[in-house]
TrEMBL record:
It comes from Xylaria flabelliformis. Residues 1-18 have a biased composition (Polar residues). Coiled coil: none annotated. GO terms for molecular function: ATP binding; protein serine/threonine kinase activity. This is Protein kinase domain-containing protein. SMART domains: S_TKc. Pfam families: Pkinase. Residues 278-560 form the Protein kinase domain.
Length: 563
């Protein structure tokens, strides 16, 4: 996975002493091996809790933030985003739902005092989307926002918390489950009785972006910098940056995620020490919540090995601009890929980077089923192609469901196919754990009828129904649903307001669609083995509908029958 492996060390006379934190155990559920929330390059150490207070007099030191000698930290830790100073003993700080190290403690001088105090220096990497702060019944979280310099604060306890800017006039009263935006500056986090943490929010670093890339090596030298067109992702002027350095970014424009805004032909260099680069090629598709494009990457990275890859970036303005939802959507998709591992009919994960909410997958030289449609919106392949597609995706779904996951968006646009490779399932952006059904998301025409009864019935059987709809289209019994039948909103079906006009209209439209599918299903020939199997996927009773494992076995046993 792309990561920065170089660990900064304190330089003599810098005024700070740094030491690694111990592992943090704030995971509320088991973390799968090789998942993006696990260090896949080493066996995890036994999880321990990092508790502030290793220096005895720390909590009694009431020095003001502006008296802390922080410049050595800022000079040495180029990519630091948060400086954290606990104000009471017993504070627990850890990475959000990971068992990886989160930041380094530094002992800093205090102006006019002989003693030093501890400050946690947090530098985002390819895994961390934020941190958790715990103290007795107090629990809150801080999330990074790849598109902005601010942090997002969430109160996860049952009582209100307050955030107050110490070098400004902003302050927020944050109710339980409420959020607040903490801009660049120094902030105090407090309960109604005491301040438990002070933090400084720092500006994001810049990333070096060039228009050209040396064919001999992955990163230009200082001498080569002047001959290249260089663009720094900030609103300020251009300044050269050495390969092993990062320049702190001035306040950037709204939604400025460097990877999301990378232009075709540009190359971005990411990291310190073990740097990786990406060169943007052509765009695959743009969606409301993400952008997907082909890229080249450097050969020295063991996972991004110089071949073409596919880059998916969650857009900063996704989910109504809610950075927390963006971060959790990114984490969910990464975790799903990691749990699934390798399967020939599932797109392979190559890497990810929390600093951009990006996911890197293998590039497959194939088009989606949506692309090769005939003018009449029917499938342009043969009956043999249809059977192969059904076999491969049924096998993929059997694997997904065995890992206790649900895809939730089976449709032609999420299936790549080339006869030599077979069919490959892509886009796990709205996948969910089997026991956590999704009330929204997906494409309405592939939604199973049980969703109208209770959206909590959405699960593995719903994926099978969706594949059955794809099967009807592959076999020529229906045209492409997305462009031939009226759309309705899935959220309107699952709405608690069952007497609203939107809900009633959505249910009416969906019932009409299910009736249309019922009629198409009745035309499937039971004497044709493939069509008989497809018919099993469209059983309107989810409890008797064929499951993915059985479907895969039945399809594997088929001989190719005549049309």
């Amino acid at each position: 996975m792309p990561l920065d492996s170089q660990t900064p060390q304190a330089s003599p006379g810098s005024g700070i002493t740094q030491h690694h934190t111990r592992r943090v155990d704030l995971v509320l559920r088991p973390v799968p091996k090789n998942s993006p929330v696990d260090d896949s390059h080493a066996s995890p150490a036994p999880a321990q809790t990092l508790e502030y207070g290793s220096f005895e007099d720390q909590a009694n030191n009431a020095s003001d933030w502006d008296k802390l000698c922080l410049q050595p930290i800022l000079s040495h830790n180029f990519s630091a985003r948060i400086l954290m100073r606990p104000k009471i003993k017993g504070i627990h700080i850890g990475s959000y739902k990971t068992n990886m190290d989160f930041g380094e403690w530094a002992r800093v001088k205090v102006e006019g005092q002989p003693d030093r105090v501890e400050v946690l220096v947090v530098e985002p990497n390819h895994v961390h989307i934020g941190c958790v702060i715990l103290h007795n019944d107090t629990r809150c979280q801080l999330f990074f926002d790849p598109g902005h310099d601010h942090l997002c604060f969430r109160n996860d306890c049952s009582t209100p918390l307050s955030t107050r800017q110490l070098d400004g006039e902003n302050s927020y009263h944050v109710i339980p489950n409420g959020t607040a935006t903490l801009g660049v500056g120094v902030w105090a986090l407090a309960t109604d009785s005491e301040t438990f943490m002070e933090i400084e929010v720092l500006k994001r670093k810049t990333w070096r972006i060039t228009q050209t890339l040396s064919s001999k090596r992955g990163a230009p030298t200082d001498e080569e910098e002047s001959s290249k067109k260089l663009r720094i992702t900030s609103s300020q002027g251009v300044a050269p940056v050495r390969d092993n350095e990062l320049e702190r970014s001035p306040q950037s424009g709204v939604g400025n995620n460097a990877l999301a805004e990378l232009q075709r032909g540009e190359v971005i260099f990411v990291g310190v020490g073990k740097m990786y680069w990406l060169k943007r090629l052509d765009t695959i598709y743009e969606q409301p919540n993400s952008t997907v494009w082909r890229a080249e990457s450097n050969k020295h990275n063991s996972r991004l090995n110089g071949e073409k890859i596919v880059v998916k970036v969650i857009k900063p303005d996704s989910f109504g601009g809610d950075a927390i939802k963006c971060a959790e959507a990114w984490k969910n998709e990464c975790e799903t890929h990691a749990v699934l591992g390798n399967h020939p009919a599932i797109v392979r994960l190559l890497g990810f980077d929390a600093r951009f909410h990006s996911i890197y997958t293998e590039h497959i030289d194939a088009k989606s089923l949506w692309d090769p449609c005939q003018p009449g919106l029917s499938f342009s392949g043969s009956r043999a192609d249809a059977q192969k597609i059904m076999q491969d995706i049924a096998s993929a779904l059997s694997h997904v469901h065995s890992k206790q996951k649900v895809h939730n968006d089976i449709k032609p646009g999420n299936i790549l196919y080339r006869p030599e490779r077979g069919a490959v399932l892509i886009d796990f952006g709205i996948s969910t754990p089997r026991r956590q059904p999704a009330s929204t998301g997906g494409s309405p025409w592939y939604l199973s009828p049980e969703f109208m009864v209770d959206w909590k019935f959405r699960g593995p059987a719903s994926d099978v129904w969706a594949l059955g709809i794809v099967g009807l289209w592959l076999l020529g019994y229906i045209p492409m649903p997305e462009v031939t039948y009226p759309e309705w909103q899935i959220a309107d079906i699952s709405s608690e307001d069952t007497v609203s006009v939107a809900h009633l209209e959505a249910v009416y439209t969906m019932k009409g669609w299910i009736e249309y599918i019922r009629e198409a299903r009745s035309k499937l020939r039971v004497g044709n083995e493939l069509e008989a199997v497809v018919k099993l996927t469209l059983d309107e009773d989810r409890t008797t509908r064929i499951d993915a494992s059985s479907l895969s076995q039945r399809l594997d046993q088929l001989r190719l029958t005549a049309p």
